Amino acid sequence: MTGNFGDWNGTITDIGPIYPFPGWEMLMVILLVIFWVGWHVMQIRKEHRDHEDQARALRQGDNLHRAVLTEHTIQRM
Q1: What would the pLDDT profile of 37-56 be if each residue is shown by its tens digit?
Q2: Contacts for 4 with CB less than 8 Å, ≥ 6 apart
Q3: What's the chain look like in SS3?
């Protein structure tokens, strides 16, 4: 694992790695990228479902008409 810090005299190569899991960097980066992309895919799917639910609710009855009538627009000066 990590080197011995009892004596600071010497060369850095004699101390060895000063962080845990040396040699696992590439695997950790690959796992992180897979997790990151997967999280984005799940988030996009969830937001798409929410958007579809809201659109479906607006399509029922006169909900869309009422939503448009209550919408405030920016007026020119």
Answers
A1: 999 999 999 999 999 998 88
A2: 15
A3: CCCCCCCCCCCHHHHCCCCCCCCCHHHHHHHHHHHHHHHHHHHHHHHHHHHHHHHHHHHCCCHHHHHHHCCCCCCCC
Q: For tokens 């909900």, what's the residue?
A: 63
Are the CB atoms for 44 and 55 separated by under 8 Å? no
The overall pTM is greater than 0.70:
no
Which two tokens mark 65? 């008409």
